[in-house]
Structure formats: C-alpha cells, structure tokens
Design goal:
single chain; globular; eight-stranded mixed β-sheet; 29% helix; alpha+beta
C-alpha cells in the first residue's frame, strides 16, 4: 500500500516538473496554428490581392483583363524572411512592439514551414498552384502563352501575447514584374487585419 502511494506521489511530482511546451517557438503546434489563422483572416488582402497586383504596367492589357492572364503559383512553404530580404528596415514604425517583432522576423525564425493545410481550399479557389520553394518560375513552360507568376510568403513573427504580427509577401513574374511588401497585422475583435504596409522593392 505504502509503495503504491509513494509511486503515485512520484508520478505527480514528475508530471509537475515536466516542462510545458514553449508556444513562442516557431516550431510549436500553437505557433503554427497562429500563423495559419493570420493567413486565413487576411487571405483576400495578401494572397488573392496579390493575384490582381500581378498585372504589370507594361503588360498588354484589354477591357477584360484579369488574373487569368497569368499562371499563378504559390510557394508551398512559408519561407525564412532573410530568403526574401537580407536586411529588414528597422525603424519603419514608431511602435516598440512592432520593431520588436520585426527584429524577431529578421533574426529569430531560422526555418521554413509548409503552407498550412487550412489554406488549401482558398488557394484552389483562387486558381493558384503550389510550387516548390526551390523551383523557379523561369523554368516553367508558359501555359497557352500566359506568363507565370509566383507569390511567396515568409514565416510570421508575433508579439508576446499573439495580438500583433508581421511578415513579408513577395511576388515575381519573370521579366514582367515583381515586388516585396512588409506587412503588419493586429488582432481586432478576434480577427486579424492588416494595419501597415511598407514596400521593400519593386521591379
């Protein structure tokens, strides 16, 4: 009886000593869930809007022009921010919290992650096809003469309580066009909204 009681006490103590998972680790399940929720909430602004922005100024247009003129691809991974932009513009915002999460995006998220599965229905709905991050659109044959366009999204950086975030969206369409944008988002009434945009480059 005593041995059984002692064993029970040891189990409880060991359970209490077990380290809780670090939700702020970019590899934790909770962190990945938060990334997925950000992208779900801002999809129309960040991904679907990207499809519209892919029409370049020097591309031949007609009265019916829309995104069907491009073969649209989305990078199948959320990439490390440095893979898109070497040095992010610290100081673009007066907010200390925003600069803190920008620093984290630039320095503290060393690995890419697959596109959240929750996004797949929206991706298909907007006629994007997933493309391996290592693949170049220049290597893809044009579909019925339409130029290829690739959209890439970085990992997302959060503040301590997961109410503010930032990430990079970039796109390129070969010799036709390309740009990169740093986006800040904030959770308002339980939903993520884009609050700031800062252009990083344009071609």
């Amino acid at each position: 009886m005593k041995n059984g009681l002692l064993l029970g006490v040891l189990v409880v103590l060991l359970g209490a000593c077990t380290k809780a998972p670090d939700i702020h680790s970019p590899e934790s399940e909770y962190y990945r869930q938060q990334e997925a929720q950000v992208l779900l909430d801002v999809f129309d602004e960040v991904v679907a809007e990207g499809a519209v922005l892919l029409v370049p100024h020097n591309f031949e247009r007609n009265a019916e022009v829309d995104t069907i003129q491009f073969s649209l691809y989305l990078n199948d991974s959320l990439v490390v921010a440095k893979a898109i932009h070497d040095d992010l513009p610290l100081g673009v915002s007066a907010s200390a919290v925003e600069n803190s999460i920008l620093t984290k995006l630039n320095d503290s998220i060393p690995t890419a992650a697959s596109i959240p599965k929750k996004l797949l229905p929206l991706i298909r709905q907007h006629n994007f096809r997933l493309l391996s991050g290592s693949a170049s659109i220049k290597s893809l044959p044009e579909d019925e003469g339409k130029p290829n366009a690739k959209l890439t999204i970085s990992r997302i950086s959060f503040n301590e309580n997961f109410t503010q975030a930032c990430f990079i969206r970039s796109y390129g369409c070969g010799r036709y066009c390309g740009s990169g944008t740093l986006l800040f988002a904030r959770k308002q009434k339980g939903r993520w909204v884009i609050t700031q945009r800062h252009g990083l480059w344009m071609a």
